[in-house]
Design brief:
Shape: globular
CATH architecture: Alpha-Beta Complex
Structural class: alpha/beta
CATH class: Alpha Beta
Order of helices and strands: HHEEEHEHEHEEHHEHHEHHHHEHHEEH
Number of domains: 1
CATH topology: Amidase signature (AS) enzymes
CATH superfamily: Amidase signature (AS) domain
Strand content: 5-15%
Number of helices: 16
Organism: Haladaptatus litoreus
Protein name: Aspartyl-tRNA(Asn)/glutamyl-tRNA(Gln) amidotransferase subunit A
Number of strands: 12
Pfam families: Amidase
Keywords: Transferase
GO molecular function, one term: transferase activity
Length: 481
């Protein structure tokens, strides 16, 4: 038995109490002995090679891009995306380009590409650079990047939506043909609706998260934004699928999204009344007009349908904020679920909590406080509400092919209207519930009201992203008539 200091024993006892364990004095010494044995394989220190970025800050009028290549990066001139230029949200690793997560206090230059970036390049895409984002993807409006607010190309006095603000604005402005964003509670769909583009939240776990900075592991996913459904579907097909580097990615294979674009057959839609009723008159009128036009087609029918929301609106902030608080405690790496287990990653995230702004703190603290005060009961209650809501959706999918709902409850807000404590449900109240259930959802432009874009969600059954794509193409067709 090795000799252990009283400081070592006290430190282990503190940990023991924090874990709710009871251990004798002999057990403490035995545990320290075992820790010494295990620790023999752990280096006392590690040298991390810090690389310089090969990119430079982009000169972009909308502040949509951060670092960009002098010339787009192309790995092959053949492939299904050889005619597509792309940008990647700055919470996704791109080899030799800075990753800041929208924070000036956080920076790493990865030595590898995220799996989704590898797949884009393998498909022939031209990679332009990194897209701006609300800091650590924790903002629904695009106002909370430390590199400056992103301008909405279609409405300069309105927010671009977040957190994938740069991705949506770059697509909307025509700077790129498509972009990758991330969606935890609407962060692809919200900016898509605000900027008048298409945004896809795929089935949860249907693609790799290797090389992606997590926010809430039960809802996080990567998805494409594009000017039209066809381009979004092509990108979706290129990046999805399992990955051995991300054991949480699903091996369930679904139909090709691009094959679904021209597929024949009737579709039945349920227009979800509670989400329409909670929306403003202008948003509801625009969405209902599209639903009526869809219902007039011979190959589609739309039925206004009620469903029980239960406590799903409360479950959304409780879930993502509690999970992010857990992430903070673990300094950015989710043990057992994360994929970036390198010393470079660990060292960068060592000061993770020091990089967070007050907007993030005010969104995280209430749920984290409840989690601690109730000994986890608040999180359990949220997950039970998700189970009930998922059961409601399952019942609807037994009757209908697809579900419809407005993306936002209001028109794109003005800058400063939405804060961490005010107005959050207006912008994420219709998107968050479907993040919690993991269903594939596409936000597609439904038209305009008062000169501002309105988005409409098409919700599909799990792993039936292709059906949602097909429904979105029908909406495009009736909208453009």
């Amino acid at each position: 038995m090795a000799h252990h200091t009283s400081a070592e024993r006290d430190r282990l006892r503190t940990l023991t109490e924090r874990l709710g364990l009871s251990v004798s004095d002999e057990g403490i010494d035995a545990a320290l002995d075992t820790a010494d044995e295990l620790g023999s394989a752990v280096p006392e220190s590690a040298t991390v090679e810090r690389r310089e970025s090969v990119g430079s800050m982009a000169d972009d009028p909308n502040n949509a891009l951060l670092e960009a290549y002098d010339e787009p990066r192309v790995e092959t001139d053949e492939g299904p995306l050889s005619d597509v230029s792309v940008a990647v949200k700055d919470v996704i690793a791109v080899k030799n380009l800075s990753m800041t997560c929208g924070s000036k206090s956080f920076s790493v230059v990865p030595s590898y590409d995220a799996t989704v970036v590898e797949r884009l390049l393998d498909a022939g895409a031209s990679l332009v650079g990194k897209a701006n984002t609300d800091a650590f993807a924790f903002g629904p409006t695009g106002e909370f990047s430390e590199f400056g607010t992103v301008t909405n190309p279609v409405a300069s006095d309105r927010v671009p939506g977040g957190s994938s603000s740069g991705s949506a604005a770059a697509v909307s402005a025509g700077t790129v043909d498509a972009a990758l964003g991330t969606d935890t509670g609407g962060s692809v769909r919200i900016p898509a609706a605000c900027c008048g583009v298409v945004g896809v939240k795929p089935t949860h776990r249907s693609m790799s998260r290797y090389g992606f900075v997590d926010l809430s592991p039960t809802t996080d996913c990567i998805g494409p934004l594009a000017r039209d459904v066809e381009t979004a579907a092509r990108v979706l097909d290129a990046i999805r699928g399992p990955d051995v580097r991300d054991p949480s990615s699903s091996h369930v294979s679904g139909e090709s999204a691009t094959d679904a674009l021209d597929k024949d057959g009737d579709l039945t839609f349920a227009l979800l009344s509670p989400f329409v009723e909670r929306s403003s008159d202008s948003v509801a009128a625009t969405v209902c007009a599209v639903a009526d036009a869809l219902d007039a087609r011979e190959d589609a029918s739309v039925t206004a349908t009620d469903l029980e929301l239960g406590e799903i609106e409360t479950a959304y902030p409780l879930t993502i904020a509690t999970e992010f608080a857990w992430l903070l405690r673990q300094r950015g790496t989710i043990r057992g679920q994360g994929t970036q287990y390198t010393e470079e990653w660990r060292e960068t995230f060592e000061s993770f909590t020091n990089c967070l702004n007050e907007h993030i703190a005010l969104r995280v603290l209430p749920a984290a406080y409840l989690d601690e005060r109730t000994n986890g009961r608040s999180y359990v209650a949220a997950r039970e509400a998700v189970t009930e809501f998922r059961r409601e959706l399952h019942g609807l999918f037994a009757e209908f092919d697809l579900l419809l709902a407005p993306t936002l409850r209001v028109l794109p807000p003005k800058y400063g209207e939405i804060t961490a404590t005010e107005g959050m449900k207006n912008i994420s109240g219709n998107t968050g519930p479907f993040s919690l259930t993991g269903n594939p959802v596409i936000s597609v432009p439904a038209g305009e009201s008062n000169g501002l874009p309105v988005g409409m969600q098409v919700i599909g059954p799990h792993f039936n992203d292709a059906r949602a794509v097909r429904g979105a193409t029908l909406i495009e067709s009736v909208r453009d008539c």
